[in-house]
Structure formats: structure tokens, C-alpha cells
Design a protein that fits this description.
Layout lengths: L1 H15 L3 H14 L4 H13 L3 H14 L4 H14 L3 H14 L4 H13 L3 H14 L4 H15 L1 H14 L1 H11 L18 H13 L3 H14 L4 H13 L3 H14 L4 H12 L5 H14 L4 H13 L3 H14 L4 H13 L3 H19 L1 H13 L1
Amino acid sequence: MADRSQQLALAEGLARQGHVQPAVEACYQALRIDDNEALTHCLLAELMLTGDFYDEAISAASRAIEIDPDCAPAYLALGLSYDRRGGMWDQSILVWHELAEVVPDLVTAHVQLGEAFAAAAFDDEAIDAWRKALELDPAEARAMYNLALAALKKEGMATALPGFRKAGELDPSQDDLFFALAGIFDDGNPAPDPTDVAEDRAARLEAAGALAYEEDFFSAAELIRLVLTENPDDPEALGLTAYLYLKQEAVNEAMACALRALTISTKTPTAVYALGVSFSKRAGLSKNAARVFAALAKAVPNQPMPHVLFAEALLGLQKYGQAAQSYRRAIALDPACVRARFGLAAVLLTEGRHAEAMWEIRRAAYHDTRRQGLFWQLYDSYVEGRS
């Protein structure tokens, strides 16, 4: 029906623009015209979930699935509603399992399934789900964080800490910190062709940073080599070189470049970062890493990630109370910092505060799924599949 399609299109447009209340009204108008459109119920569920009206979201999503059992975005809205409402883990497990069946390669479905299993105390099943997520996407940081927490529960912090560090390496927020310290930001323009870069230090350094940002490490290294050939004592170039070595897992070389840069100028934040990360990758150097990250946190107190890195170093020293303080500082600066919330959950587990730890994990899931914009990806795929 034309009227139904118009109202649904209006609701969808308003929802995509963030106009929740008008979009809800448009959905209800569309449902008055036709109550058997899965897309309308699905969209209404997402809008209700956005407003934290979980019972209404559950009702709308369930109706969408009743109309069409293959409505993937409705399963997502339903599963998230159960998870955020809490205490409905049996239903949540069923929904995430169904979504994993409907969209087998959807990594988040397996991550959420694992978290639902864990909340229901099915630990082995949870681990299997997270491992499946990592099979689908080896760079899935949240699955790795959850596996680290599982190791913490079973074997203690010494076993869990490498997992947290590995998850941190997968988490793009740590690289974001380096580029913020280097003054490199995404301006929407592609990195220049290395052959077109002017033959001066500033142009080469800027281009190398842009290329590193786009993960063209080889070209970035070539430009940095030219800068260091002219001046081996350029601290900013050495700081970027240390970062490039870290990306290649050449920790000793990264440490040497960072130390050299700091010998030349102690006010080189990229070198401080690289030195701290290098220390954190070497067993027995947690105390050194803690000192470096503490200095970095003081130098850039409004950046959440230095506080997270400092907290992780404190975990290695078993200073859990201080680690919790640093994690909470990071969360205060950025409530959506998933890495800080998982770290704080780890500290709470060491103190036997399981309910509070689960709350932090749920908040991490909340922010992670919002960041992904996953609902609209599934929604668009579902619409395309019906056409």
C-alpha cells in the first residue's frame, strides 16, 4: 500500500536523523495502516531500545520476528533489549543463537551469545562462542577481552593479562591515542603518494604520519628514513619510527628508537607512548611501563587511553585498587571506552564483586554495539534481500 510505504519511509528517515519521537509517531501511523509489516515493527523496536524502553522494544521486535522469522535486525533489537533489561539470559541466549543462524558470519552475534552464556554461568559455552567470533574475525577485540576475563576467573590475573594486552592491540583506540599525540587526524583526504611529497623535513614527516594512519607502513618508513638520513637526532621522526617498529612487533628496535628520542627531547609524547608500550610487551617490565604511562597520563590528563594503559600496567603489579582508580578516570573522560570498562570488570572480579563486573561488561557491550551502527547495516541488508 502506498500510504504504508510513505509512512514507513518517513519513520525510517526520521530515525536515521536521530529524531526519535517523530519517528515513533510515524511508525505507529504506519502500523495503523498495516500491522503486518515486519520492517515497521523492527524499526519501532530499535527506536524503543534507543529510548531504553525495553519491554516495548521486546514486544515490537517479537512481533517483527513473528511476521518474518528471517528479520535479522529484529533479532538484534530483541537480543540487545533482553541484555540491557537484565535477568533474562535464557531468552537472550535463544535470540543470539537464532541471529547467528540467520546471519552466520555476524561476529557480534557470537560475541553477544558468549556474554549471555557467561551471564547464565555457562562458561564453557561462552568460551566456544567467543572463539567462534575470533575465527570469523581475528581482530575482534571484544571477544578477546571476554576470553581474558574467562581466563581470569579460571586461572588468575597472570594468565589473563596477556589476553588483555592482546585485546588492547586489536582495539583501535590505542592507535588513536598515538596519532592524537602526534597531531595526526583524519581530515577526509587520502594520504599523499610518496613520490609526490616535497623534499623537506616537514612535508616528509607529515606525509609519513598520514601514511602510517592509513596503515601503509612501508611507505611511511621510507619517508621517515629520508628524514633521519638528514638528521638522525630528529625526536619526532624517531617517535614515529618507534611506532612503526611496534606495528611490526619489533619491540627491541621500538624501545631503542623511543629511548633515543627521549634522550634528545624529553617532551616527545609519541616516544613516551612507544616506550611504555615496549615495556608492557616485555615480561618483568610492568613497573617500568607503569612509570612511563603515569608520566604520559600527567602530560595529557584529558586523554582516557593513557589512564587505561597505566591501569593495565598496575594490573601486572597486582595493584588492583590503583588500577580501578585509573580505569574510573578513563571512564569519566569517555564513558564509551570499552577497554576501560572491561579492565574495571577484571578488577571487580578479583575483589569478588561479580554483579558490578557484569554491569560493566553490559555497559561495554552497550557502547560497542552503538559504535558499530549494526542495526542499520542489518536493516539495509534485510531490505535489499526482500527487493
